[in-house]
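FAQ: What does a multi-protein file look like?

Like this. Sequence, then tokens, then the next protein.
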Amino acid sequence: MSEFIDRGGQEVIGVARVEGPIVVVDGAGSVGYDEVVEVFDSRGRVRRGRVLEVGEDVAVVEVFAGTTGLSIDDTRVRFLGQPLRIPVTEEMLGRIFDGMGTPIDGGPEPLADHYADINGQPINPTARVYPRDYIQTGISAIDGMNTLVMGQKLPIFSGSGLPHDQLAAQIVRQATLGAPVGETPTQAAEFVIVFAAMGVKHDVAAYFRDSFAESGALTRVAMFLNLADDPPVERLVTPRVALTLAEYLAFERQMHVLVILTDMTNYCEALRQISNIRGEVPSRKGYPGYLYSDLASIYERTGRIKTSKGSITQLPILTMPNDDITHPVPDLTGYITEGQIVLSRDLAYQGIYPPIAVLPSLSRLMKDGIGEGRTRADHSHLSAQLYASYAHVQDVRALASVIGEEELSTVDRQYLEFGRAFEQEFVNQGPTENRTIEETLNIGWRLLSILPPEELTRVSPDEIQQYYRK
């Protein structure tokens, strides 16, 4: 499906070294970084690849399909003189592709409007528009406490065995353009989703396909699936292919695009594997020193620009090895992105879904996407009060573990009741439950009514009078 045009590139017969998915070519002459190559084995069968590194008459090439069966003397490498480009068109919505952008749903190749470089074009900072409007996910812990703003990059930090795949599928099914309370959110054609899975197992990929198809969400989704048994090198291309289509839909077709990337940890593992094969000096935990800039080249392809009505919003999902939030992948991701949504193993053990840990979660752009005219005037104060009250619950629980719950004051016992209700009724909701922003805010006020009014210091007296229920 990708376009490879012969631009008069040169051809080299025989290679210096073959190691893993890497081929080292001597006598390459004048070739460029990220240039596309065709690698021919002794039987003339072709594989695609790209230039990773260039030196004086030497080129390091990564082969997307691996190097099994290639010999040093009989391998031919043809340099095509251009970066990898894929066709982009609105027809790709409702379709399923592999990690390289080739259809795997049995349908024909879409008729391309044009071909675009998968590395994208950097956005001029002066052309950016500050994110203001919100996207409604239907999930209270996100919409009410960590609102996703259109044009934001907000990662989900998960752990092995936690239901991040289920959460991602639910967001795809439910996400809509946000609207103020009293108005109907729109799920019209201008809001679409680009979904890219990297290194996922076959059963997980089948779950995503079936979930989107059965709910009807697939009609507005373009899926890119890189499976666990696909070559790791393809994993490095998958998010860039997905974002290339997102950029076309957002900035040329004026659509609002939500990009979901799962699992970015698998992407980083593939990057570490290729780096080790190349013999690069490792940095933290064996990852390459350029991991930060490489992740930034993906995450920063997000936002809104003055010349387009469209937008790109990113929701990358990553699993933290050993639930370690200081691991290089979540650590660097947190520096680049505008907050994080953290899943809790303790909440998952209690049967709470989605197990979103409210206290360590944060949406740095939330304050600019909520309030009167966007959600509801009391949203900001309500979320601050819920956060403060739930934070105090943790102190009361620690005290109760020492002196016993029966020795607590009346107010402290009310806080314990609020904490249990907050987890079971606000955070917890079914995987098919789609709450409006008004329902989320009303649940929050109903739970705050468990506490005495004098404890509600983050909301105004007028808001207490309007929404507090004794």
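And here is the next protein:
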Amino acid sequence: MYKFGYVAVLGLPNAGKSTLINRLVGMRLAIVSNKPQTTRDNILAIVNGKNYQLVLIDTPGIHKATSHLDRFMMKNVRTAKASADVVLYLIDSTAAPTAQELEHIAKMKADGLNVVVAASKCDKKHPNFDCDVVFSALTGENVQLLIDKILSFLPSSKTKNFLYDQDEVTDKPIKFIVAEYVREGVLQQLKKEVPHGVAAVTTLYQEKPNIVDIEVEIVCEKQSHKGIIIGKGGQTLKKIGVYARQMCEALLGKKVMLKIFVKVEEGWKDKPSKLTDLGYN
């Protein structure tokens, strides 16, 4: 018997959604940082088992929308929730769920959605609240139990009803993942408000037999932010580039020549046309 289904992965920022997805697909598909709103777009992650295929939808952390970009992100959350067979709601076990979270979960269940409530990061602290599964994406503890719980909501089929090939792990093109690696480098190197005003887009991707030439453009909101991203003597941008290049080489299995440019676009988060240019459709 086979099972297939879409799973929307929801939760507040830093609940561990992207870390779980990377664990399940076995690669650095979704970027991770300790800063909220790291994930901006819905990323499909395809998890293949012997008798099942789950398509996980990694969504932005639920937060209050204050810009066009925020509204785009929250629309992605609503779309994922409405189209999924199962909603996996993650709660950080190191902090008690908020009244807003509990209300959101109760409403989804009242609306008839299949909801699995899971407490993440149990390697740091075990939760003191009721949930369906307690797990750690970092150590792998109870991750299979989590998968089994999700599968329990999906109907069985005698025929293989998978929609994706066994070697597929995402719907996103390589150019998207490369740009996200660069943005992850920015998140690692910079603090405060600067990373939240940064986007990255791959402007050149040229694969040759032994090397891949890549150019990525970092877009920021202010001229002063551009200087911070580049850093004294270009050192910060160099560190961002080294990290992103190493990630790309690990993904592609060949040498990468990566060039990064920094551009200022004031107020880009509130410009619908610019958001489209940057891939936030």
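Q: Is there any per-entry metadata?
A: Some entries carry free-text notes. For the entry above: The longest strand covers residues 211-220.
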